[in-house]
Amino acid sequence: MQIIENSKVKEKLYIEKLSNGINVVFIPKKTNKKYIIWGIKYGSIDGKFLSNGKEINIPDGSAHYLEHKLFEQENGMNSLDVLTNIGVDANAYTTNNHTAYLFECTDNFYEGLDELMDYVQNPYFTDENIDKERGIIEQEIMMYKDYPEWELYMNALECMYNDNPIKIDVAGSIQSISKITKETLYDIYNNFYTPENSIIVVSGDFEPESIFNEIKSRMKMEKCLNKIERIYPEEKESIVKEKKVQEMDISIPMFMIGYKDDIHENMVKRNLGIEILLNYAFSRSSKLFNELYEDGKLISEVSFNYEYAETYAHVLVQGQSEDVDYVIEKLEKELEKIKIEGFDKARLNSIKRKVYGELVKDNYSTVSSISTGYVTDYFRGIGIFDYFEEFETIDEDYLLEILNTLFRNDNKVISIINPKN
Question: Which of 71, 88, 70 is nearest to 80 (CA)?
Fold first, then answer.
């Protein structure tokens, strides 16, 4: 058993690699809440791969489809219903690069553990239950098409990426899911739902040896002997197009500015640097935000995010305004101004303290946030405490380097949703 401690956030990790190759992580928390998440490194971008030299092509939306169907058991029960009935808050999700199954509870943890480890390790896919789910997922796809925020986001990715599957909706399309069969889902499960491609993270008030033994006693998954190679298309550095405008049933226009980034050696430090930069330029405490808000040009705070994994990276800045073009111009000019004038040291230090505090609060304060964050970072090749090691190394020169190399016109896209006339 490996033990890792971090004195800055007063957290400790216990890690054990089981005989089948799966890593199990326990994060102790003195609380009545208990949380477990089983993550699998297979997401919506993994539609093409080699298995023992044989190329397999998977329809878009299959990772998400499998997530839906894994709850259904051969005895006719649905594991999500079983978990709900014992008072456990269970869920699952699919992202671009991984899928996860989880639950949180105060009581009946071990009954929940029985069910979780049973359904994840015992898939039951039939022609009938695959077809039954198709209509449900079609409705989900259509529902998201009616969400302005989702269309705004997907349109930005469409403008940004040429061939990278990040631009494909996680749920797929009505056309793509019509091609999904039980064989599709078994191809995914048998090749990727394997110990060496998974991680289990538990958080709560347990004894390390005890919780590891409980998981070991329920572990049936065997090592996968298949040689797997994921295939991703070569992505051009250039964007596809500068702008996309769409009309929907909204009252106030929405905008998103995207900046396409490269994959860098130290993505943890880059992520932190971008977070500090965008808070400095656009957060509620910034001079620009207060000016735009008082003038009625922004109706709320601008939101921003840096999304990245092994095959993609981009910055997204989002807001709402009756005068989108004016606000976008002001946001861009603010970045150019910082490039020329540099930073106010006192304000920069204040922003760094704010970002540090939010990092601790958002990622380490609850059993769910620390466990889910661990899984997300694990599949990006990042340790949960790496952020604190890098934070102290970020200085003004590094921030200016990011400003000058990332925030450019040739890698910028704009997505706008306008009200229908």
Answer: 71
